[in-house]
Design a protein that fits this description.
- With 127 residues, the chain is an all-alpha fold.
- The chain has two domains: 2-34; 53-121, no CATH class.
- Helix content is 71%, strand content 0%.
- The protein has helices at 2-13, 20-34, 53-72, 75-105, 110-121.
- The chain is elongated.
Length: 127
């Protein structure tokens, strides 16, 4: 932090002598030195087939309760958070169970069963 202040004060003292382009390049150099630009890779993931609006709302409520508990540190807020955590788990478990029950109830023969199991296990059909 001290180095940044020093660099900026040197630049500030020389502002009258420096034109706009040089000032901009100096600022960019200081910023690159003290706070280099970084890049991130964002992976776009599709949501699970059983994920619903209800699941999303429950997760939001759980996260809201967690933030409140972390901020306050109160036991009651912890209990509320744990309640919401259980709600999310139960909603997702029920939705997942219903999804898989529906998938397997549509199976007519052994070929369909093995195709479904291959699909659900994520195996490549070419292997």
């Amino acid at each position: 932090m001290a180095i940044l202040k020093q660099d900026l004060s040197i630049l500030k003292n020389n502002v009258k002598q420096v034109d706009a382009e040089m000032f901009t390049s100096k600022i960019r150099g200081i910023m690159e030195n003290h706070a280099p630009q970084t890049s991130r890779t964002v992976t776009d993931r599709t949501s699970s087939p059983w994920f619903s609006v209800e699941s999303k709302a429950a997760k939001q409520a759980r996260r809201r309760a967690e933030r409140k508990w972390n901020k306050s540190g109160l036991e009651i807020d912890k209990q509320i958070y744990l309640y919401h955590k259980k709600q999310v788990r139960d909603i997702n478990l029920t939705a997942k169970r219903e999804y898989y029950n529906l998938k397997f109830s549509e199976v007519q023969n052994s070929k369909d069963f093995f195709n479904l199991s291959t699909e659900l296990l994520g195996k490549d059909k070419n292997t």
